[in-house]
TrEMBL record:
The keyword Cell membrane does not apply. Residues 442-941 are annotated as: Adenylyl transferase. Its cofactor is Mg(2+). Keywords: ATP-binding, Ligase, Magnesium, Multifunctional enzyme, Nucleotide-binding, Nucleotidyltransferase, Transferase. Residues 1-437 are annotated as: Adenylyl removase. One of its GO terms (molecular function) is nucleotidyltransferase activity. SUPFAM superfamilies: Nucleotidyltransferase (SSF81301), Nucleotidyltransferase substrate binding subunit/domain (SSF81593). This is Bifunctional glutamine synthetase adenylyltransferase/adenylyl-removing enzyme.
């Protein structure tokens, strides 16, 4: 029936007029003017509950007419002298404040987000008022609970679900869990242990809010989300809850506690507990295993919907609110362990964070946000009608008409059409999240072959698939299938492996080197069999599986790292992998922020820092392999990453030494990077050439100010030793870097750390030419900025000294010839990219000669450290001609790219001389000869 028909229109008019008549009896002077009449008519159509409240509380109507409910209704004072009035006071307050929310929502003064936030604040305030009153009452009767140290313990009330998320619907129940931080006993005449004390307090709280009286209820309380549900104790200590979640926590509880928030009682203690619970909710890796839990919950809800015929339930039905919540929460659980920005309790901010993190498209995010607001607004209106906890569309045509008109739709058909469109879009997006596993369709023959192993299966299937060495492939696969790791899998994990293996085999068979890919993949699988989350990632995400085959086929180094550190599998799906890589500042910030409050736990800092370094360097390697950035850019980024790592390790080292010995007042410390680190041309797996400097106002007589003081020289030596040891310490995520400190003054015979003055004197008086050459690429890496500036001054004074060009040339040539004789690994069939004639070191020596011989006249030559920048700078003053510049920059790029490619594939940096390498060598050899640097009398091949 059309709501615009005379019958429906008159029925709605009659509802409005009956409301007006009731209001005139309670507030005879309030509704005379037409504007007031129209506002009340709109409210009356939308909410019988609001009219009932306004009739019972005329003063509320007066307030709403004055300021349209701009200010919250005043909360009651629950005094112990009027204990019997508490239920009435809370219920009248709840109905008055709820009516204010109806008024503002129906009249378009608030958006749906405001209404949800207002409903949340109202529930929190009622909980806090009731708890505070009951706590005072319990303290009179039983005293307060104290732990062993005598500290007062309070109840912590956790709000879960929409209360925890700050998005409570209008007539929702509140999901609560009661807890307390420490065990103990109350100190009153009738003492109770903590569990019984807080259980009774919690029960009284629920009764005060939930019990139905002549004034109705305040808030329905649901305590079933506590451990073991209704069978579990009412209040839990933090320790007991932690043990429960460690041993028995289930997937649905991860979803539930994702939104948990302390809403009453000891808020600070509650936040501390939630921080300790974070590893249970958010795994450290990409957690695609969360999708299994989601599938299970969705299946249960779908069965309930079918059983109870709830297709028109806008919360649990297809395309309803629950699907949006599950979709967002699942993505948070998958990615939130690695991305803290995704750990928000609120749905809409979480949705936006997913879009910003590129885990969801802008269009999908906008669509879901719009659908969510549409559904939540409709849900609120269904509940506002009679303050009923309902999510079902009404059957009565009169109610349908009222809902549609109050929501500014022409009729019910119009509202239903809009609703169906929103739900269809939500369902499509939700199904897409659960669908990836079902989209994989590995060839039946490969699947049958794998599942027949180890005793059955025909190796000819592998030959047909593309394995040239089918017999060898068959042998290693049978060994793998027989291995204890595979035989010991649980049924669910074995099912995942059975889905993943055929696709991996097909991918390996299609690669350029199938047997190599297979061996590398099996090495990885051996390491992840006990970690079901990684199999879940490959099972749920075909893109990650395909990327894995590609990576292990193309890079031995990355295959080894994936096998050794499966956490890097996350990088295969990280949206940032395909995007722009972070620059110098971002890399430094990422390292410095690692475990920033955990300096007392060096092992935790090093583990976390290693994971960050591994992930970022893996991302750089992927970008280089994919051709998304040049070798020069990759080498720079690797050096910048090392800068950040050293800075973070230095902070940790200084903290450890200062904890034991105090600090040296006014003293400064700096780390100087030499070699490829200083020159911003670091490779994958390169070691770091470091030199340590310090400066102390008191000189050698200065001491640290701790309980066990050290003289300054020893203090800084300890710091330097710590830096070297921490960088080389082995953790579960590997070691950070090997360190070489032989470039310090006097080499291996010298002190590990030098004072600024002794370093200056050494460079001025005793350093060899080759040491000044090394200084060309040296730069300040970490530590005190002012000392870094002083180092730069020493470096500039040293390098810009007047020198005889011929003497420099002779020294440089002699050193290069000695190096060539000792280090060049070229032979008749291959060229040493670094040490060979016309290799990278020849180019470095050419530029170092230029700086040493001529920077006295060209101060600008001192600034650049990396090779391309040095080439461009010396060329700007005409020392290289234009053709040389382009040829040398191109040669450097070719050789550096070839060298990094060798490193990625675990090959020696020696290659056959193809056309590109030959051209690069010729350019470097020509430039060195033109400037009189005959490094080798042997002609180029």
């Amino acid at each position: 029936m059309n709501p615009d028909s005379p019958t429906h229109s008159s029925a709605i008019d009659a509802i409005a007029e009956r409301a007006m008549a009731r209001l005139r009896l309670s507030s005879p002077d309030a509704i005379d003017d037409p504007q007031t009449h129209e506002r009340l008519r709109r409210v009356a159509i939308a909410s019988d509950f609001a009219i009932d409240t306004l009739v019972r509380q005329p003063e509320l109507l007066q307030s709403l007419l004055r300021d349209d409910g701009a200010h919250a209704w005043p909360a009651p004072t629950l005094s112990p002298e009027h204990r019997t009035d508490w239920p009435m006071q809370l219920r009248r307050y709840r109905t008055a404040e709820s009516t204010r929310l109806v008024w503002r929502d129906v009249l378009g003064l608030d958006e749906v987000d405001d209404t949800l936030a207002g409903s949340t604040r109202l529930a929190e305030r009622c909980l806090q008022l009731a708890l505070e009153a009951l706590e005072a009452e319990f303290a009179q009767r039983h005293g307060v609970v104290r732990d062993r140290e005598g500290n007062v313990q309070r109840l912590v009330v956790f709000g879960l679900g929409k209360l925890g998320g700050g998005e409570l619907n209008f007539s929702s129940d509140v999901d609560l869990v009661y807890a307390y931080e420490h065990d103990g006993e109350s100190d009153g005449a009738r003492a109770l242990d903590a569990e019984h004390y807080f259980a009774r307090l919690g029960q009284q709280l629920a009764k005060l809010l939930d019990e139905l009286t002549v004034d109705g209820f305040c808030h329905r309380v649901d305590l079933r989300l506590r451990p073991y549900g209704n069978a579990g104790r009412v209040a839990w200590s933090f320790t007991a809850m932690e043990q429960y979640f460690q041993r028995e926590g289930r997937d649905w509880e991860r979803y539930a506690w994702q939104k948990a928030r302390p809403v009453a009682g000891d808020i600070d203690a509650g936040e501390r507990f939630l921080e300790s619970l974070r590893p249970f909710v958010y795994r450290r890796y990409l957690d695609f295993g969360a999708l299994d839990g989601l599938r299970g919950m969705k299946a249960s809800i779908s069965a309930e919907v079918a059983r109870k015929e709830l297709a028109d339930d806008i919360k649990r039905g297809p395309g309803g609110i629950r699907e949006i919540e599950f979709l967002v929460q699942a993505l948070q659980l998958i990615y939130g362990g690695r991305e803290p920005a995704l750990r928000d309790r609120r749905l809409l901010p979480s949705l936006q964070a997913l879009v910003e993190a590129r885990q969801m498209s802008d269009d999908a995010g906008s669509m879901l946000a719009h659908a969510y607001r549409f559904l939540r607004r409709l849900e609120n209106r269904l509940q506002m009608l009679r303050d009923a906890q309902t999510h079902a569309l009404p059957d009565a045509e009169g109610d349908r008409a009222r809902i549609a008109i109050a929501l500014d739709h022409a009729d019910w058909a119009s509202l239903r059409e809009a609703l169906d469109g929103q739900r269809a879009r939500v369902t499509a997006e939700f199904e897409a999240l659960l669908a990836p596993r079902r989209k994989r369709n590995a060839p039946d023959a490969i699947t049958a072959y794998w599942r027949a192993l180890p005793d059955g299966g025909d190796s000819a299937v592998l030959g047909d698939a593309g394995f040239v060495e089918a017999g060898n492939a068959d042998g290693v696969l049978r060994d793998f299938a027989r291995s204890p790791g595979v035989r010991g899998l649980s049924d669910s994990t074995r099912a995942r492996l059975d889905r993943v293996m055929p696709a991996l085999l097909q991918g390996a068979a299609a690669s350029s080197e199938p047997m190599l890919a297979l061996r590398r993949l099996l090495a990885l699988l051996h390491n992840v069999l006990r970690r079901s989350a990684y199999l879940a990632l490959l099972d749920e995400q075909p893109a990650a599986l395909a990327r894995l085959v590609e990576v292990v086929t193309r890079s031995a180094l990355l295959a080894e790292r994936l096998a050794a550190y499966p956490l890097l599998l996350d990088e295969l799906l990280d949206a940032r992998v395909a995007g722009p890589l972070p620059g110098r500042e971002a890399l430094h910030a990422a390292c410095i922020a690692v475990a920033e409050d955990a300096d007392d736990d060096a092992e935790a800092v090093l583990q976390a820092l290693n994971e960050v370094r591994q992930a970022l360097s893996f991302r750089m390697a992927m970008a280089l392999r994919d051709g998304r950035q040049s070798a020069s850019d990759s080498a720079c980024q690797l050096a910048w990453l090392a800068d950040g790592v050293v800075a973070r390790v230095l902070r940790l080292a200084e903290h450890e030494v200062a904890t034991a010995h105090g600090r040296v007042p006014g003293a400064r410390f700096a780390v100087i990077g030499y070699g490829s680190l200083g020159g911003e041309e670091l490779g994958f797996g390169s070691d770091l050439d470091l030199v340590f400097l310090y400066d102390s106002p008191g000189g050698e007589h200065a001491h640290s100010d701790g309980a066990r003081p050290l003289e300054a020289t020893r203090w800084f030596a300890r710091v330097a030793q710590k830096v070297v040891a921490l960088l080389g310490a082995v953790t579960g995520a590997g070691r950070l870097y090997d360190v070489d400190v032989r470039l310090r003054p006097d080499g291996a015979k010298g002190l590990l750390v030098s004072s600024l003055s002794s370093y200056r004197d050494y460079q001025r008086e005793r350093a060899w030419t080759w040491e000044h050459q090394a200084l060309v690429r040296a730069r300040f890496i970490a530590g005190d900025d002012s000392l870094g500036a002083d180092f730069e001054q020493v470096r500039a004074q040293t390098l810009s000294r007047e020198r005889d060009a011929k003497t420099v040339r002779d020294d440089v040539v002699a050193m290069r010839r000695r190096m060539r004789a000792e280090l060049d690994r070229s032979d008749a069939g291959s060229f040493d990219l670094k040490q060979g004639q016309g290799g990278l070191v020849d180019l470095e020596f050419l530029l170092q000669y230029a700086v040493l011989a001529h920077s006295a006249e060209h101060a600008a030559w001192l600034a650049p450290r990396n090779t391309p920048a040095l080439i461009s700078t010396v060329a700007s003053d005409g020392w290289l001609d234009a053709d040389e510049v382009q040829a040398l920059i191109g040669a450097h790029a070719v050789l550096l790219d070839a060298g990094l490619a060798c490193t990625l594939d675990r090959r020696p940096r020696r290659l056959p001389i193809d056309e590109r390498i030959a051209s690069a060598r010729e350019s470097i050899i020509a430039a060195t000869h033109r400037h009189g640097l005959a490094f080798d009398d042997v002609p180029a091949a």
